[in-house]
Amino acid sequence: MKSKIMPPLVLTIICVIVSGLLAMANELTKDKVAEAQQNKLQSSLEETFGEAEYTVVDQTYDKVNQVIRDDSGRVIFDITVDGYSKGGLQLLIGIDTEGKTCGVGIVACGETPGLGTKVQDDKSFREQFLGQSSTDYDFSPITGATYSSKGMKNAVDIAIETYNENKEAILK
Fold first, then answer.
1. Domain for residue 36, yes or no?
2. How many whole angstroms separate alpha carbon 170 and alpha carbon 75?
3. Does the structure show a pLDDT above 80 at 23?
4. FRET label pair with 67: which of 57, 59, 102, 150, CA 20 to 30 Å apart?
5. In the predicted structure, residue 172 carries a pLDDT above the cut 80
């Protein structure tokens, strides 16, 4: 009887101890992780849109992580979309005061190295999305990174649609 009870009991004790250690590690590092994510977002904003005073808008929209405005009136959408990887692209899509896309920045790219990451490395690819004010435009995907390219187009389309449908509320 003892030989049947002991292995599951030992395994349960090990699982409880490991779970406790994981919870403790999470508690100790969550502030540092949040700070690192905020710093990455801030550096991506500055890299793509320049130095400015950025303010998070207190509004939520479907498929949009957050909406950010800068002191020049631009609206920047933080959007996470699927590329080849589920949730593999976290992008910043900027819309200027005329309602046209003015920048596409990458906060995080979890796509396949050497293939899907080409959307991050190829600046001319991202530039083809600039100046768009509707979702009816042609784009050229990167060969070998079709899913990632379509994911980026999807994010730009989400930003344009969200802006066009909620312009008055966003610009308040």
1. no
2. 8
3. yes
4. 150
5. no
